[in-house]
Write a structure and sequence with these properties.
Elements lengths: L1 H17 L5 E6 L2 H14 L5 E4 L6 H6 L5 E5 H4 L8 E6 L6 H9 L10 E4 L6 H17 L9
Parallel strand pairs: 1-3, 1-4, 2-3, 4-5
Helix pairs in contact: 5-6
Length: 155
């Protein structure tokens, strides 16, 4: 799939840049099937990083919570949006097109202030779809209120 390959190219670039900083990374996707695909792909991109899944794919709650210790955590917005504290989370990559203020604020809220480190929220939006652009505008209002700095990149 050409669109998925493009997404992986962008994600690869982003991961290659941010893994240099040794901060914990969360990648938020929409469906468990996307988690499974990424779980098989990310170790090829970042072979020296541990990868965990935080989702109902892992039924045992204790085992699922242990996944939060991984360097890179893949989750859905539904699983990651619940009352959750991920120690050391420095980077969040949001791939879900949503216009929900609550979901956007929950995702931003996962980034806690870290001593001597900045936190980063990456919002990946496929601007090839009108609805995604509308949803991006909605999220931008929230992000503008919360962020110290916003930089838009067109890839």
């Amino acid at each position: 799939n050409q669109r998925y390959d493009m997404f992986i190219d962008i994600l690869t670039y982003l991961l290659n840049v941010i893994t240099k900083y040794n901060g914990k990374i969360a990648i938020i996707v929409h469906k468990n099937e996307h988690i499974k695909k990424l779980f098989n792909t990310i170790p090829k991109i970042c072979p020296n990083k541990s990868v965990g899944i935080f989702s109902t794919i892992i039924e045992d709650t204790k085992e699922r919570n242990e996944q939060l210790n991984a360097d890179i955590i893949i989750s859905t917005e539904k699983s990651f949006g619940k009352a959750l504290n991920v120690s050391g989370l420095q980077f969040l990559i949001m791939t879900v097109p949503t216009s929900s203020k609550i979901v956007t604020e929950q995702m931003i809220g996962r980034l806690r202030k870290l001593e001597d480190k900045k936190c980063f929220y990456f919002d990946l939006t496929d601007c090839g779809f009108k609805q995604c652009i509308i949803q991006k505008r909605s999220r931008s209002k929230i992000l503008n209120e919360k962020a110290k700095k916003i930089k838009n990149l067109t890839l």
